[in-house]
Amino acid sequence: MSIEIKLSKKRIPYKKAMLFLNKRVEEVKKGDNKELIWILEHPKTYTAGVSFKQNEIIDKTIKIIRTNRGGKITYHGPGQLIIYPLINIKTRNMNIIDYINVIEDICIGVFNNNQIELIRKKEKNRGLWVKSAKGSRKIIFIGLRYSRGVIHHGLSINFHNDLEKFRKINPCGLDGREISSLEELGINYDKDKIIKELKERFIQKFDLNLI
To answer: How many domains does the chain have?
Structure first.
C-alpha cells in the first residue's frame, strides 16, 4: 500500500488537524487506510506535549492547547512548515530512536543539498540547529507519539515565522533566544524546492512499494 501525500495550501487549525490525524491513526492500525505524509502550516497556536510544565510559560496570558505528543511547549504559526508523517514503523523493523535518526537524516540531506548546514545536539534534545555568528540556533523541532506500531505528529521547520512568539515560552525546554529561523539568520533558501525535496526523500525512505 503506497503512502498518501497531502499538501495543504491553506492553514489548518491545530485541533482540526489533530482530529483528522487521530482518526487516521486508528484506521492505519487496523489496515483500513494508507499511511500519510501531511505537509501544512498552522495558524498562531501554542501547544503543550505530555512532559510540559507550567513554569515553561513566561507570558501567563497566552492560551495553550494540550496535546498527546511527546515533548514540552512550543509555538506553531505562519511561516513555519509542519510535516506530519503517519507511519507504521513496526512493519519496517524500526524503533522510535531509529525513526528520529532517519527523519533528522532526511532534513540534513535536503538542507545540505540547498547549501544549508544543519547540526545535531543530542545532549540537549532532538531536532536540528544552524550555526550562526551568535552561536547555533534551533530551527527544526521534533515531537512524536507512538501507539501500537504507528508513529505520528512530526516535525516543524522555522522558515520565516514570528520569533517573538517563542520568547513568551521556554520552547522545548530551551531559552526562547536559542530559537531562530532561516530568515532571521539571513540564510538564502528556496522554500518550494526544499518542500519538494523533503517530500521526495520521505517517500523514498518510507514507501514500501519502492523497497
So the answer is: 1
Whether 172 is a known active-site residue: answer yes
Distance CA 8, CA 34 (A): 18
CB 43, CB 13: distance < 8 Å? yes
Strand ranges of the sheet holding 45-48, from the earlier edge strand across to the other edge: 64-66, 45-48, 73-76
If we measure between CA atoms, which residue out of 69, 87, 81 comes closest to residue 144?
69
CB distance 181 to 163 below 8 Å? yes
pTM: 0.93
Helix (H, G, I), strand (E, B) or coil at 77: coil
pLDDT tens column, 82-115: 999 999 999 999 999 999 999 999 999 999 999 9
The residue from 25, 39, 163, 172 that is catalytic is 172
| Rounded Cα gap, residues 50 and 66, in angstroms | 8
Alpha-carbon gap, residue 46 to 63, rounded angstroms: 7
Flag whether 35 is in a domain: yes
Does a structural domain hold residue 211?
A: no
12 in helix, strand or coil? coil
Instruction: State the cell numbers at 112.
Output: 545540505
Instruction: Provide the residue range defining the domain that includes 111.
Output: 4-206
CATH code of 90's domain:
3.30.930.10
